[in-house]
Design a protein that fits this description.
The protein is of the alpha+beta class. It has 3 domains: 97 residues, Uridine Diphospho-n-acetylenolpyruvylglucosamine Reductase, domain 2; 113 residues, Uridine Diphospho-n-acetylenolpyruvylglucosamine Reductase, domain 3 (2-Layer Sandwich); 242 residues, Alpha-Beta Plaits (2-Layer Sandwich). The chain has 16 helices and 23 strands. Strands 17-12-14-13-20-21-19-23 form an 8-stranded antiparallel beta sheet. A 5-stranded antiparallel beta sheet has the order 5-6-10-8-9. Strand 5 and strand 6 form a beta hairpin. The two termini are 19 Å apart. The relative contact order is 0.14.
Length: 480
């Protein structure tokens, strides 16, 4: 590190040198982490960084997996203290917030009035700033698309200290560069969202057993006209004719006059510290960790699939639950998932395969993972649709989450698998999700994201000296 640890004495903004890691606990960096609370304090960090020839990496809730939110030896601007809801109109559904406001806070305000925020992944504490920078998606990606589609406008602080109001319709190119821009163009300091009116806070969830990947994709397409949310759990260990078997979960909003039980509703928006609400997470993960191996996951997958199949033969009854219990089920039932992989961490590859490549391409992807013994231990499959953002994980196709624990893995083996997967995805005309990437090369990136040059042109216009940067930026986008 080329800068003194005492340099933060120049800042009145709360700051500290500390090691920061991504969500998956595989990479970390020593950085000067600052915690501004206002736009003025953000501007102070900008001026400080320019004066000391340091770069800035904005950071939200810290749920990005790899090195997109790391900035080794430089400044990290953590917006988690900028967490005020500025205005909320329950008549129109317009909500204005600071970038550190998380999904839990939004739903506590909006859902009792029958408003929802589309395109939310399954993390209660994901921040609005992080959601925009990663242009996240949810179980409704095939219908509502990415998070940027819910944004009307935002206030944006540039490297020159200018505060811009960027509107979706008036500043289209800049808007579509910043959304999904990974914090590499400036600092989002205020956001106005358009929420969606729904008939009630409840959804009806139905499950369908599918025998293989072909049946799964057919079922996903068939259910689109009758669903608001779709997701498939896949047994990635099943082989032969059963390859890709699993359970398709469909949910739709319900017309329901039932009054919300406030205690249950608030509880559904509160991250839990117990597995299935029963077992202390830290202790449970510590006990389970030694046995959490691929062979055991294979056995548990078989038990779960066959038990679900048997259950559906006996009776079938859709369940009516809070949307928040449905969408944020991971935070509710299996909190603090990275603890399961401690201390080695885990990698998640999330490829998107275009529909134009056909069902065989999706089957071949699962087969490829099996051939290399990289079957996903917790595998979900979603459908997506096209968008027009410059750098964004979207397109008419299917995404698959490939979770791989690093315990007992040789990193050269992981690297080889990554290269193989990336080559295959490129041949299919697909891409991988940058928010979960740790291995992509610049050469592979430019093939997956051909509009990156347009993005860099925008960056050169508003951040000529590359004040905003990150480990991922230097590794993948502009390795120099």
């Amino acid at each position: 590190m080329s800068v003194s640890k005492d340099i933060n004495n120049e800042l009145s903004v709360r700051s500290e040198w500390k090691y920061v890691h991504g969500w998956a606990n595989t990479r970390r960096a020593l950085a000067l982490v600052t915690y501004p609370r206002t736009i003025e304090e953000c501007l102070e960090v900008v001026k400080f960084s320019k004066k000391n020839n340091m770069t800035i990496c904005p950071r939200g809730g810290g749920f990005t997996f790899g090195d997109m939110i790391l900035n080794d030896g430089q400044v990290i601007l953590d917006v988690s203290q900028m967490n005020d809801i500025i205005s909320w109109d329950p008549q129109t559904g317009k909500l204005t917030v600071q970038p550190g406001v998380n999904f839990s806070s939004i739903f506590k305000v909006a859902m009792p009035a029958n408003w929802t925020l589309p395109s939310c992944p399954g993390g209660l504490l994901v921040t609005v700033g992080g959601a925009i920078s990663n242009n996240v998606h949810g179980k409704d990606a095939w219908n509502n698309g990415v998070f940027g589609n819910q944004v009307i406008e935002f206030k944006f602080l540039t490297a020159n200290g200018d505060l811009l109001c960027v509107n979706r319709d008036k500043e289209r190119v800049l808007f579509e560069s910043i959304v999904g821009g990974m914090g590499l163009l400036g600092i989002i300091v205020e956001v106005t969202l358009q929420l969606q009116k729904v008939p009630s806070p409840f959804v009806e969830v139905s499950s369908y057993i599918v025998r293989n990947i072909e049946e799964s994709l057919e079922m996903l397409e068939r259910l689109k006209d009758h669903s608001d949310f779709l997701l498939t759990w896949v047994d990635a260990f099943a082989t032969g004719d059963s390859l890709g078997r699993g359970i398709v979960a469909s949910a739709r909003w319900l017309e329901k006059d039932e009054k919300i039980n406030e205690d249950k509703f608030v509880n559904s928006l509160t991250p839990q510290d117990k597995i299935f609400g029963l077992f202390p997470a830290n202790l449970t993960w510590a006990c389970v960790r030694p046995f959490f191996q691929p062979y055991l996951i294979n056995i548990l997958n078989k038990i779960f699939y066959n038990a679900s199949k048997f259950k559906n033969k006996i009776y079938w009854k859709p369940a009516s639950i809070f949307y928040t219990d449905y969408n944020f089920i991971q935070d509710r039932l299996i909190p603090d998932k990275p603890q399961l992989y401690y201390p080695h961490g885990y990698i998640e590859f999330q490829p998107l395969i275009p529909k134009s490549s056909g069902v065989k391409a999706v089957r071949s992807l699962f087969k490829l993972c099996q051939d290399y013994r990289f079957q996903s231990q917790l595998c979900a499959l979603k459908t997506h649709k096209n968008d027009n953002y410059l750098i964004c994980f979207e397109g008419e196709g299917y995404s698959i989450g490939v979770d791989v624990q690093l315990k007992n893995r040789d990193l050269s083996e992981v690297e080889h698998f990554a290269r193989t997967i990336f080559d295959y995805v490129i041949d299919c005309g697909g891409k991988v999700y940058l928010a979960k990437d740790e291995y992509l090369s610049h050469h592979e990136f430019v093939k997956m994201y051909p509009r990156y040059r347009d993005f860099l042109n925008v960056k050169s216009d508003i951040d000529q000296d590359s004040l905003f940067s990150s480990n991922l930026y230097r590794r993948v986008i502009n390795p120099g």
